[in-house]
Amino acid sequence: MQKATELNTPPNQPFALTNFQSLGGEDFLVVNGGKIAALGNGRALASDWPKVNVVDCQQATVIPGLMNSHIHAPMGFFRDLGHGKQNMIETFLFPAEKSLTPELIAPLSYSYLVDALKSGTTAVAEHYYFSAGVVQALDRIGMRGFVGETIADLGGAFFGEDNLKRSMDLLKKWPGSSRVRPVLAPHAADTVSLKLQKEVAQIAKSENLHIHMHLSQSVGERERVTKAHGKSPVAVAAQSGLLGSRTIAVHLLTADTEDMKILADTGTTAGLCPSSQVVYHALAPVAEFFRHKIPVALGTDCAASGDNADMLAELKTAALCSMTASAELRTVPAATFLDTAIANPRRFWFGDPGLKVGDSADLTWLDRGIEREPINDLATNLVFSASSRQVRHVLVEGEWILFDRKLTRVSEDDLRQEYLAAVAEIQRRVFA
Ligand SMILES: [Zn+2]
What we know:
Oligomer: single chain
Bound molecules: zinc ion
Helix content: 25-40%
Shape: globular
Largest sheet: 5 strands, mixed
Radius of gyration: 21 Å
């Protein structure tokens, strides 16, 4: 029996994790070829795997990897600068982003991605410009990703009719491994024309792609769209064919009850980024999402407003902000909030909420430190007591990409140096 700290699981050989605490009550799993080959109770299953390397998890918590459903990783260079500003998107972010060039994107992503990984995140949904760089950054670290190139023809840092072509070029010459998948990423209902919205919806259908977009994210968006089309941003997106069970619409701050019905009827997932939303404007109408049974997926947005990519911190923020905003949410079980980081995004991306045999072994291991004992209810403990300090190992496709809190594929010092050099360059361009 190996202790985790002595672990050196040879690549391509099966290994078992045993004696762990999990959300489903299992305490034994086998990883073979990057996938879960067995999952259940140790006593029942151990005899089926007599020769496999066994890692005794010593009662550590092992859960499906957390999924961050909305980020803009390269916006690390805006860290600390988005606070205390009005109309930040139009007056500050878009003008500054015009100075970006493709070679800066991978290094600018490292801070946010490393932060995500160290908080137990195995997968991120990314939405930005020159996205090939983010694909490469994810592959360098080993994380899973769903990456879209921003599409907009009416506004934004790089809007134009060539946006869709850029997106399609990225799809055709995909620069990453199969661990990182492409999605379509229209910007929002006020920055994408009706014609382009319909084209994107068509391509999503024909190419079988998910859609990741902002929607109804500001009072300004709602006013502009309603003035132009006589309908709300949600209604316009629905009419264009953008909404559905393979679409995540992020923010929805100004969505009303009619919009909620449309979101529920189409099976659209709502992207919730509480920290960022409170900094920008106000928390999304979480109670309405729950009331209408709209699936909710949690994200941290970006360093300009969400600041960090710590999913455990964001879970607690989501739960507390929701309770403050609406008394009826005080009785919602913590497990419902935890679902926004595990079950709901898993259902959205993989079609199934839980971890089962045959799934990719994307796992997060948290220590049983004294600071979160006793664990009387694991879901409640993960939302309210756990912190990223306890995240010790992270596996993607059975590969230990974070081991003893250290990146295994690449030196964090190297990433830090490359990141800070890229930050210095973009700051020179923006502020000189
Ligand atoms: Zn965003």
